[in-house]
Amino acid sequence: MEECFGCWQEAKRADKVAAFLLALRTALKPEYYENISAVLKEVESASRLLRDLYDLFPIYQTRVPVVRYYLNIILPTFQKTMRDMLIYIDNGELPPRTQWTLMSQRLSDQGGMTLAQRFVMYIEALVQTVRLLSRCRITFSTLQPFGINDWLEIILTIIPIIRSHLVGIVARTQAGRREDQNGLSTYTLRCDRPPGSDCAAPSAATAKPGRA
Hints:
Blueprint (H helix, E strand, L loop, with lengths): L1 H26 L5 H24 L7 H26 L6 H16 L3 H21 L12 H43 L22
């Protein structure tokens, strides 16, 4: 079963990446600890979820066709991210600080989000895939062709998952926009001049004397 082998292979790759990240966190100064730990935590969680899928496939063999489509989307993108990370953190010619800086900057530029945020999306997708595999009520045989009732069951199962996922993304996006707007409003109230100009009020020595 290709999906089963793919989950196991990517789990091993994630463990390898986690080991390199742990070594980087140990070698670098404490100022990098928080950022590296955020990525390391998500990589380890992804590895555990992939192993869970590997363990669940033999138990829910008749439900594998339901999640195959989603795994064919998640696993290739997850694999590419892992390989891109290993290009930098598995390069002994670069010092640890350069490894982390280059990897973090270049991978963050690819998707318009930080590396930790990218892994949060992977985790959410894998969690929903595990739930779909283990909680789906479909019990049809893999040799039996899909009927209209089977497709309706799949659709009714997937729609709430996708809806909750999209609601979470929209809520986080709106919260980020509100924070940006609040920051801009605060700056406007504090200083209505262009950035870089002196916003301080004139001192008593430089102020023009008022008329008596």
